[in-house]
Amino acid sequence: MAEVHIIGNIEGGEGFSSPNISCKWCFETGGAWRLLEGVKDGQTQVDHPIDEGRAHWTHPVDLHYATKGIQGWPKLSVQVKTHFYLIIHRYLYYTDNAHIGLDIGHSPFVIFKND
C-alpha cells in the first residue's frame, strides 16, 4: 500500500474587494484512499485585507493518506467567504477546486470569482 503526505499552508488570497475574508477548505479523495492522520477539512480565521485586497491566513495543512491506487488522487476544494458581522449570514464569494500536484515545493492555487 502506497502512502502520500500533504504538508503545507493555505497562505492567503488576493484581489478581494470585500473585508472580513476566510477560506473554507476540504480535501476530497476516491474510494481507494484512506486518511491515516490529519484533518481533511476546516476553515481559516477571518482576515481583513488592507494591503490591496490580500488576505493572509497561513493555515497549516498536514495529511497522511494510504492508497491502493492513484485513482481518486487528492483534490483540494476551497470556498472563500466574506463575513458580514452586522448580519448573521455568511455569503459565498468564490469557489473552486484543483488536484494536488506531484511536485515537491510551492503550488499556487488560483480561484476565480463566481458571477
What report would you give on this structure?
The chain is built from no helices and seven strands. The protein is elongated, with a radius of gyration of 15 Å. A hairpin with a 6-residue loop joins strand 6 (75-83) and strand 7. It is mainly β and 115 residues long. Mean pLDDT is 79; it is low at 87-92. The strands form two sheets. Strands 4-2-6-7 form a four-stranded antiparallel sheet, with no helix packed on it. It has a three-stranded antiparallel sheet with strand order 1-5-3, with no helix packed on it. The protein starts with a strand and ends in a 16-residue tail after the last strand. It has strands spanning 2-13, 21-28, 33-37, 41-43, 55-67, 75-83, 90-99.
Secondary-structure element order, N to C: EEEEEEE
Report the mean per-residue pLDDT as an integer: 79
Q: Evaluate the radius of gyration.
A: 15 Å
What about the largest sheet? Answer: 4 strands, antiparallel
Distance between the termini: 43 Å
Class derived from helix and strand content: mainly beta
- Overall geometric form: elongated
Spans of at least 5 consecutive residues whose pLDDT stays below 50 are 87-92
What is the tally of beta strands?
7
Oligomer: single chain
Q: Provide the β-strand percentage band.
A: over 45%
